């Protein structure tokens, strides 16, 4: 990590530009990385996001960041030509590619007003390196928000695609990669399960572009993945150096301040769901959340609501608007739909369950909820 941080140590006002592709799971760890650069190296950051994900949840999160981090939204781009049901991976990559001209101009402006030392983006933003190169940003780093096992799979995708003619789901033997646990074919990530799909070609494209960076920063750490960490930290010709820098997670202390050692404004007081959990008995609450892609069909959403009500079980439910076509793309990519998700719940559900349950729209601080003493399961 010395090569990456040496620039930060020479000037307290070094500046880093970052691009977070859609999803709080991408935005939060990048913001935490920016906080660490500020706290440990005095660096400032411009954190770019897409206009398509400018939800109330995201806006509140960005507004809570310390002064060293400046949020900036890229101009919207037209995605209406993409067919309904397009996978998230494709949506993010296309939006990124179409945002390159605007991002290049923004980075060029930053070079005029700051000492811009590096550009960082996550795995679905790799085409934005064209903007960084066009703006002549010297260092281009990839941030991988997943684990080292997943990174290893993606780094090997081009050779796997060439050597495995069948679908992964049809493999008789698991995929074996050095340092990793064997991966049964049906467990390989969804975008790789259909070689004829645009998402499959996209993942190969991303994997190839992973090699076109100066370093890969991974939201993991050696103690949790020791074997694969040892493999990836060995120099390999043609592969950029890999640095496990995690865990980068959003944490708050009991008073609501960020537990990261930063100075300046802190995030807002503890969210309503954490305050509600404070009032519940220990190990009594079921946490119901399907992540950023939690888009149930409307009928399943209603059945889940009725099941929770009939159970009498205490619950905390993160509700998103339904997706009747079965696609996960709608709610993952548009984290807050135009229509209030509560309107899809059974009539009177919230009122009837208010003594035992809490329903929150779109997003909750998952790490804090799962760590709370009142949470008994999820």
Automatic annotation (TrEMBL):
CDD domains: GT1_Gtf-like (cd03784). InterPro entries: UDP_glucos_trans. One of its GO terms (molecular function) is UDP-glycosyltransferase activity. It comes from the Eukaryota. Keywords: Glycosyltransferase, Transferase. The keyword Nuclease does not apply. The keyword Acetylation does not apply. PANTHER family: GLYCOSYLTRANSFERASE-RELATED, UDP-GLYCOSYLTRANSFERASE 72E1. This is UDP-glycosyltransferases domain-containing protein.
């Amino acid at each position: 990590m010395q090569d990456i941080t040496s620039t930060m140590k020479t000037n307290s006002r070094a500046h880093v530009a970052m691009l977070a592709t859609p999803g709080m799971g991408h935005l939060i760890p990048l913001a935490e990385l920016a906080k660490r650069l500020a706290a440990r190296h005095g660096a400032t950051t411009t954190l770019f996001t897409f206009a398509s994900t400018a939800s109330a949840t995201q806006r509140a999160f960005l507004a809570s960041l310390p002064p060293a981090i400046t949020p900036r939204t890229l101009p919207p781009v037209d995605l209406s030509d993409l067919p309904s049901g397009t996978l998230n991976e494709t949506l993010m990559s296309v939006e990124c590619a179409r945002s390159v001209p605007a991002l290049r101009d923004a980075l060029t402006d930053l070079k005029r007003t700051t000492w811009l030392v590096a550009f960082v983006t996550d795995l679905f933003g790799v085409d934005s390196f064209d903007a960084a190169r066009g703006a002549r940003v010297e260092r281009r780093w990839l941030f991988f928000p997943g684990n080292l096992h997943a990174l290893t799979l993606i780094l090997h995708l081009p050779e796997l695609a060439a050597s495995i003619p069948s679908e992964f789901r049809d493999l008789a033997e698991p995929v074996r990669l050095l340092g990793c646990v064997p991966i049964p074919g049906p467990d390989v990530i969804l975008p790789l399960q259909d070689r004829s799909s645009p998402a499959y070609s996209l993942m190969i494209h991303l994997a190839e572009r992973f090699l076109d960076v100066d370093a890969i920063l991974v939201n993991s750490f050696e103690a949790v993945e020791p074997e694969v960490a040892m493999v990836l930290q060995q120099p390999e010709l043609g592969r950029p150096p890999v640095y496990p820098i995690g865990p980068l997670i959003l944490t708050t202390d009991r008073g609501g301040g960020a537990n990261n050692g930063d100075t300046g404004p802190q995030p807002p007081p503890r969210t309503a769901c954490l305050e509600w959990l404070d009032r519940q008995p220990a190990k009594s609450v079921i946490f119901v959340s399907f992540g950023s892609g939690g888009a149930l069909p409307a009928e399943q959403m209603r059945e889940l609501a009725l099941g929770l009500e009939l159970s009498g079980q205490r619950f905390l439910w993160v509700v998103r608007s339904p997706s009747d076509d079965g696609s996960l793309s709608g709610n993952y990519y548009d984290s807050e739909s135009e229509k209030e998700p509560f309107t899809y719940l059974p009539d009177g559900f919230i009122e009837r369950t208010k003594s035992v349950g809490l329903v929150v729209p779109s997003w909750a601080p998952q790490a804090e909820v799962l760590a709370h003493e009142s949470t008994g399961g999820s």
